[in-house]
Structure prediction request, 814 residues.
Amino acid sequence: MMDVPMNSVEPLLHIDLEASSITVVVACILLLALARHAGARGGWWAFWGFAAAALLATISLRADVALVTLGITGLVQAWFTQGSTRLGALGLALSGVGTVVAGLLHGQGAHDAAFVASVAALVIRVGPWPLHGAMARLATRAMSEQVRQLGLLLPLLFVHLRHLDHLDLAVQWSVPMVQWGAASMAVAALASIGATTLGGYYVFYSSAHGAVIIMACGAAGAGHEAAALFAGITVCVATGGQGAMVAAVRRHVGERALSTAGGLVHSMPRTAALFLVFGGAGVGLPATAAFVADDLMLHALWQESPVSTAAVIVAAALLAIATWSVTTAVFYGPDPGWSDRDLDPSERFTATACLMVMVVLGFAPRLLLDPALTILKPPPSVSVTAPDVAR
Amino acid sequence: MTNVPWLAWIPWVAILAPLTASLALAVVSLLAARLPCERRVVLCMQWCLGVGLVANLIVAGGLILGAAPGDVHFGDWLVAGDYQIPLTLRIDGLGASFAAMSAVLALVVARFSRTYLHREPGHLRFFMMLGVFACGVQVVSFAGALDLMFAGWEAVGIASTLFIGFFHDRPEPIRSSVRALVTYRLCDAGFLLAVVAAHEWLHSTTLASLDRVDALPAWQATVLASLLMASAMGKSAQLPFSGWLSRATEGPTPSSALFYGGISIHLGLFLLLRTWSVIDHAPIVEGVGIAIGLLTAVYAASIARVQSDAKGALAHATLAQVGLIFAEIAAGWTTLALIHLLCHASLRVWQYLRAPNVLHDAHRLGKAVRGGDSWLRRTAPEFDRRIYAHSLARWRLDDRVDAVIQPALRLARLLARRSGGAS
Prediction:
């Protein structure tokens, strides 16, 4: 690690990449690649530009630089999205503006205000019920952008946890955020059972997982930063991976109604398998990171609110039921005789790499957790508010 | 097992061997241009199951030859602040006997399926899930902590659901698999809550820490025991969660043998035996367990006697015995229950695997000789007719459960419509 005295000018970059930063960047790049396969606009230039911005934000030691960088990526993505859905683009733009404002406020020393702006930006991005309108539009009209925004959500969450979630305000907001997240997840999970189309199901699936990120941020405020990061990575990769599979289905057969048997497993067996595994990975499938993330989050949530913990457990069960029902409705059934194309080799490789990230983290969670526990401690710049926290 | 250190590592071989086969088959299927051929799939899985069986026999042999049973701690799976998931295995007679029986039955079923599923479209899928199932059962058998046990428990549930929906061209297996998953997941929520509660109340989830349950207030011990029992009831299809079992036989015969005759349906009983120290401190739960077990036995026995298909009759006959074992455990007769469990599981697997031949045998042997009228029919013919009619309708259990679920489904549809998920 580069030895820089902390009482001089604050360094811009953290040269020694910790394992947690590497994991965030790798997961982000894989999701960006999945989005690219799913037809996200902007070509390879956009892919590399977003990846570079994510890398810069993740390794930057300065919260303002990281947040402004990520805010600009949000605005650029909103520009790419406006042709497909205006409401979705508006959501991305608002989130981008919120992130930029959070960065500027942090640079001015207004940490509490920066925290509020960052939380607002995150809430818009993850779309927990009932604020899921913008992200629902992305999921139904521009799935590739939804996958891309999930990729870019990872560095945003990382920066939020690293630089902003240590304040006194974060501690005060902890329980309400956990309770809201749990209620929101329960409603979205229940609604996912009543969805009548594949897109409708995915809207609630991603909204329920957005609620998990809200809960994770709440739990992080109470000192569970590493658990929050672990859960965030799991949620984004699982939801993004499943989004890519939904996009693959739509590319070939359009929107699927869930009232009739689709039978797509005959022509798209790999898509079916990956859809199921990503769906399971979002609800605590053993041997994936999701199982560990569930355990960590439930423990963290119990300390904030045992009732919320029970609600989250039931919601996860409902989400699993919805996922299996949708899998059977879309992929199972007699062969309709369509000649649909399964995933091409590069898509398969990227999706399998995403799964490998989940499996490796599932078997060896300490690869991420141990460095995360170190890196997510309050940086020196936040020590300004230390007396408040102590009080 | 401190007196034979190398033996402590052997259960890992039993756990990881089938999982390795499944992961290898999954990665090859996803990345390769062509799916692996039948012969290679079978060889890969049979070898790995064989290695697992040998590992199990070594552990069982070690215990018989005098190795001390106990918990072996392999460090922590993860540590985050004050939260840990310990990587602890419990090597004792209960776990080793259940694991060895499971390994034998899994290998037998794999060998049977090699012929039975020859050229079946889901051949690869079947063997991959068989590996996941075998790994899950080994994890449950040897786990020394509730977290670890839950991981195996979930793997078994997922494999079971996929096996029920194996013949996915037909609508009935699909519906049955959804019903099984609903039961599994809702009951597993109890297990997961028990894991979190154990961590918060006992400050650890190891099985050893469950022995300290007597230090808890009575209501906490009762809650913990209730959650564990609810989970066991779902997996072992006890009333009121019995409805899925008759539908579960929609899967291929080898999987029915392994799951609903042999291992999966007995896993709930194994959980109760493993966590007996908790159940023992909750007399109310013990009483409820005895009542549920006996009621299930009567319910299943009445249905088994009126079934017209071999697998349906077998499923309910199995359930009747499982209900009895459930009651035995709740009554505290744990050794009797373990012996009953092991013998019953082995017998049922054999019967399920023989089920396809029953018709053939019936034709060969001619009409089965039936006895005269039953005692009930002679003494109370009207009551006998009513029992017969109710049993034929399976006591309308599914309708009653549906009546409970329907309002929630209506609410879900309403929420979806109002929130834009129906578009």
Remarks:
- The radius of gyration of chain A is 20 Å.
